[in-house]
Amino acid sequence: MDEVTKFARLVAETHRFCLTTHVHPDGDGLGSLLALGETLKNQGKEVVLFVDDEIPPQYRRLPGIEGVLSEIPKDGFETLVLLDCAEPSRIGRLKSHLVGAKMVIIDHHSSSDEAGDVNILDPQAPATGLILFRMFRALSWPITPSIATNLYTALLTDTGCFCFQQTNEEAFRMAAELVAAGASPAKVAEDLFEHYPLRRFKLLARALDALELHFGGRLGLVVLTPEAFQETGAQGSDTESFANMIRSIDTVELAVLIREVTPGQVAVSLRSQRINVARLAERFGGGGHAQAAGFKKRARADEVRAALLEAARELMEGK
């Protein structure tokens, strides 16, 4: 029995679900969460949507987003579904509430440990939303205009507006079908990219001032300190796409964004078109895709910066 069939059987046998995605949620995680949540509710299921983090401002107009909880459901659940996240360690506080619940993982990131009772994984898919789209079509589950909008958001964001290397023919076919089902590309683009808070631009100015180039311009690096966040009023979620901006510099092969929002807690984003940054992230306990990866570490930004530069030197020199 394949994993999609196993999931369909589990849905038929289960009434109460909890759906979640990784901390620091993005468009793919949230769009997938909302799309599957509506689909299960339409089948008469009791569904709780939970994210153990703040919803970034650009995603607060997604249909159904007002139903996402930030407090752990008190009544328990029979099945937990992790979307865009193959590692239970990345779902926050909910990890400690898994006892007795079945777990389903739906993700397009590679994982060495298939931790779920059902694991629907495809590291070649450009977005988790595309995996859901395939599944909905295979199971003949209807796609409403709001589901189409959320799936389109998932696809658009994780393909970098259809610019990243993993964007393929299937992604464009999916986008066309979602538009036919009611998604509005213009409305999604407006909601995602034309409602940024002013604090984001103040932080971006700090990031550009802090830009460093190393190894003859091949590596671009930005460190954002706690002071940068405090003085601009910005949040960690306001840095989305900053790493891609660094990568867009013509000489840069490897982009590094180091964020220390809270003193002693660092989050790092890595981007590249030609270098496997997942290998670099794995050296620091993180992971991701070949072109986009990251990690978190309890340390100071300057300590992580020094260690990253040395590790990046070895990687870029082919050691």
TrEMBL record:
Residues 231-316 form the DHHA1 domain. GO terms for molecular function: nucleic acid binding. Residues 17-154 form the DDH domain. InterPro entries: DDH_dom, DHH_sf, DHHA1_dom, Oligoribo/pAp-PDE_c-di-AMP_PDE. Pfam families: DHH, DHHA1. This is Bifunctional oligoribonuclease/PAP phosphatase NrnA.
